[in-house]
Amino acid sequence: MDDVERQKHFYQTIFNLSYDGIVGVDNDGRIIIINEAGANFLGISISEATKGNIATINPKASLLRVLADQSFHHDEIRRLESHTAIINRAPVYYNDELIGAVSSMRDITELQQYEETIRRNISQQGLQAKWTLSHLVAESEPMQHLLRLAHRYAAVDSTLLLQGESGTGKEMLAQGIHSESRRSKGPFVALNYAAVPETLRQLLPLTLCLEVGACH
């Protein structure tokens, strides 16, 4: 086996082991490369896929749009049968010439189920924030400025990221902002991000833990 074949075999193994579904098509929409996860997303076998055209398998496939307008699609959330996936698509060029397009699909169904479990537990436990911004005493100008910002952002209906070293009071500040917000009557939970399994932590959006509490 020469070096080219060795390298090809090496990358093919990585490709096949990927948890992400990967599908590649040429300029005519013919599927020229696909792994097992990608075939599962499409609901067909690899042998069927490589003999077909993406337009035939899925007439509404966004890869066709990528080929047409040579656009990039990032972090699009799509429902595929009983699965939910985050999808990225991109045109493929060689020497500045368009030669096809590729799509990667990551199944986040398990993550959504994990999130739903968290939300159910929160609702059942009736967790409430214990601290308000009035409980936080600030004497220095930086801390007073921080509290002014906290009051201002509490009125904004948006995700908020709090950053700081461990033990600096991020959760107390998060509870205070929650108590001042229009969601003050809703549950509050501090999600220990480090306790989330590694396989889910890689997928878990920071917005999840910030929406229901404070990451620490």
TrEMBL record:
SUPFAM superfamilies, alphabetized:
P-loop containing nucleoside triphosphate hydrolases, PYP-like sensor domain (PAS domain)
Q: InterPro entries, alphabetically?
A: P-loop_NTPase, PAS, PAS-like_dom_sf, Sigma_54_int, Sigma_54_int_dom_ATP-bd_1
Instruction: Extract the Pfam families matched here.
Output: PAS_9 (PF13426), Sigma54_activat (PF00158)
Q: What keywords were assigned to this record?
A: ATP-binding, Nucleotide-binding
Protein name, UniProt field: Anaerobic nitric oxide reductase transcription regulator NorR
Q: Name the species this protein comes from.
A: Sulfoacidibacillus ferrooxidans
Q: Which CDD domains match?
A: AAA, PAS
Q: Which GO terms describe its molecular function?
A: ATP binding
Tell me the ranges covered by the PAS domain, including all copies: 7-48
Q: Return one Gene Ontology term, BP aspect.
A: regulation of DNA-templated transcription
State the encoding gene.
Answer: norR_3
User: Which segments constitute the Sigma-54 factor interaction domain?
Assistant: 136-208
